Amino acid sequence: MTPALELRGLNKSFHLKTKGGFFPSYTELRAVRDVNLVLPTNSIVGLVGESGSGKSTTGMLAMRLLEPTSGQILVDGTDITMLDHIALKSFRRKMQVVFQDSYSALDPMMTLQQIVAEPLHIHHIGTLSEQKAAALDMLERVGLDRRYGGRYSHELSGGQRQRVAIARALILKPTVLVADEPTSALDVSVKAQIINLLLDLQKERGLSILFISHDLSVVRALTDEVAVMCDGRIVERAATETIFTTPRHPYTRALLDAIPVLNPHLRRTRMFLSREQINAATPRLRAIDLAAKCDPSAIPQLVAINTNHHVEAIVT
Amino acid sequence: MRLVDIENLTVDFPQHEGTVQAVRGVSWHLAAGESLGIVGESGSGKSVTCMALLRLLREPPAKITADRLELVGENMLTADRHKLASIRGRVAAMVFQDPMTAFDPVFTIGHQIIETIQAHRSVSKSQAKAEASSLLAKVEIKNPAAMLESYPHQLSGGMLQRAMIAMALSCRPQILVADEPTTALDVTIQAQILQLIKGLQSELGMGLVMITHDLGVIAETVDRVVVMYGGRVMEEGPVQSIFDAPAHPYTQALLRSIPGQTPGRHRLIEISGGSPSPVHPPAGCPFHPRCDRADAKCKETPPFMAIAESRHAACWRLP
Question: Which of B220, B264, B266 sits opposite A267 (nearest CB)?
Fold first, then answer.
């Protein structure tokens, strides 16, 4: 079955000015390096990593909110990498995004009903009254009373604003939703509500969600598969429970080890590895032990140790 | 002697729409060398309690009243400006959530730490600099000399938070108040900073007040816990017994709602509804509109009663 979203060999470099003036010099920052990622239809894939790992940049590239330096983006099997902005507009109906900061994502001058109806307006779907009715239905679906339609975003709590952002993202009935840290700014008790809402909507609408987060506990509850990013590369990719129970890459282990343990009886002193120690501990695997054929190389590469578990390793 | 003694503290902020009742009758204490965690969601009053304790709130608009508000035996309600200046930093120091805004961007880290040391103690600039350098080494900064010359924007969040902890420790306080010190940091850096704070606390024998919304942070770092909701204390007790047997329905619901405790993709047990309005808080127990065990009695304010050895909770439905 064609995946809902596929990223093939995606790269993104930013050029940072290190010296200004008449002869400026630039340094290249490789934010995303050779990322291959498949989001199967009807599933939730988590993209995790620390700040600066390139996970948000990957999400922006997938939506073509940023232009990739090289590589391909496929939505439902169609390559959208080269589409011009007119052709892209119709594809944007299929993919929507929810950001972390719902406060800056919602226009303070518009009512909630206008905010949610705006995508329909932009894509010329339905008459004004149909758009209005659809927006109110959508608000109701995400758990906000229809009476909220006439209100403004500043009147809402963080959790309610995130519900509005989700309603706006889903009103075009997209197939792909990129959710970039949608629960990170929320209180503990509200976080669970939004996670449940995303789970329900995914099931009900057959959505495929790329869930970008640094919160591994949320990722464990929500996703089917996880890709771990470090320095712009995917260093490990597997089914969620595989990542949590048998991680192979030292960076994945370091991330998991840092999660606070919810049991005061199990307190311990942690050992912290530096980035150099993590790099030095890159797994070394023999080519014949791998699930897919692979050439030996001193440069770490993402290899399949079994059909659904990929890890970055030095192949010997 | 108790380092902190708070009894029946209320903090109000009068506004046009009505009075924001941020803290509504909070009592707790901190013994010497003890670590206390204050856990609550945004708007629960956990930060305002500690800001009121150090008299860091602008008054007016803030209106602070209490039966007792003492820091190392000093009455904080009646202390004047000079008294407060000598208490802050020397007796109790604070570490904030966002180190980027806590430091002044136009001065070096060294300048700011040296200034703090010289403000409280009569030492020469070179002595202060040597001390700043050793403090930075204490918070596990590899190259303290380079750090002293750095400006805040040149450093990562984790490095800045270490520098802020160094600055807080510069006057050898008896109490360290850490307000969400790791919320803005990555999970790996969070673990390092928590371990650092915990280590320094036991090494220096300080009292520690850890303010956080994250029960994981509480489970990892403190001896005793105060659970706050809607400006009130819901429950209080030793950390092990709170996690083993949470008594208050709010604490129970909060612990149940934390994701990632069981394997597999699954719906979470959510707490329905939203936080109480600080202007028009519900009558009685602030949690009762969201509580599945609430009845008519819960519209009256429950007493903060002893439920077991060194355990207290405010709930009519107990035991």
Answer: B220
Contact residues, chain B, for A219 at CB < 8 Å: 260
Q: What pLDDT was estimated at residue B227?
A: 95
To the nearest 10°, report the CA torsion of A307, A309, A311, A313: -40
Each residue of A89-142: pLDDT tens digit? 888 888 999 988 877 888 989 999 999 999 999 999 989 999 999 999 999 888
Residue B134, pLDDT score: 85
Closest residue of chain B to A189, computed from CA coordinates: B271
Q: What local confidence, expressed as pLDDT, does residue B166 receive?
A: 85
Task: Give the Cα separation of A12 and A70 in Å (integer).
Answer: 7
pLDDT digits (tens, 9 = 90+) for B105-147: 899 988 998 988 888 888 888 988 888 888 888 777 888 888 8
Q: What is the interface size between A and B, counted as CB pairs within 8 Å? A: 124
pLDDT at B122: 85
For an interface test with A, give the residue of B220, B240, B252 to mutate (most A CBs within 10 A).
B220
Residue B270 has pLDDT above 90, yes or no: no
How far B267 CA sits from the closest chain A CA (Å)? 5
Q: Does B77 touch chain A (CB under 8 A)?
A: no
Task: Give B-chain residues touching A158 at CB under 8 angstroms.
Answer: 42
From the list B162, B179, B184, B161, the residue with the least C-alpha distance to B39 is: B179
Q: Which residues of A touch B243 (CB under 8 A)?
A: 262-264
Of B50, B66, B74, B76, which Cα lies nearest the Cα of B226?
B50
Owner of token pair 């706050």 = B228
Interface membership of A192 toward B (CB under 8 Å) = yes
Distance CA B48, CA B41 (A): 12
Q: What are phi and psi of A284, to 5 degrees?
A: -110, 120
**A94 in helix, strand or coil?**
coil
List CB contacts (< 8 A) between A188 and chain B.
Answer: 41, 213-215, 254, 257-258
User: Which of B253, B259, B264 is nearest residue A195 as measured by Cβ atoms?
Assistant: B259
pLDDT grade, residue B10 (50/70/90)? very high
Q: Which residue has the tokens 């993919």?
A: A95
Alpha helix (H) residue ranges in chain B: 46-53, 81-87, 99-102, 109-120, 125-138, 144-148, 157-169, 187-204, 215-221, 239-244, 249-257
Pairing of strands A297-306, A284-285: unpaired
B175 pLDDT band, cuts 50/70/90, is very high
pLDDT in tens, A239-284: 999 999 999 999 999 999 988 888 888 888 888 888 888 888 888 8
- Whole-angstrom distance, CA of residue B133 vs CA of residue B140: 11
A291 is written with which tokens? 């699930």
Q: Which pTM was predicted?
A: 0.87
In this structure, what token pair is assigned to residue B211? 């303010």
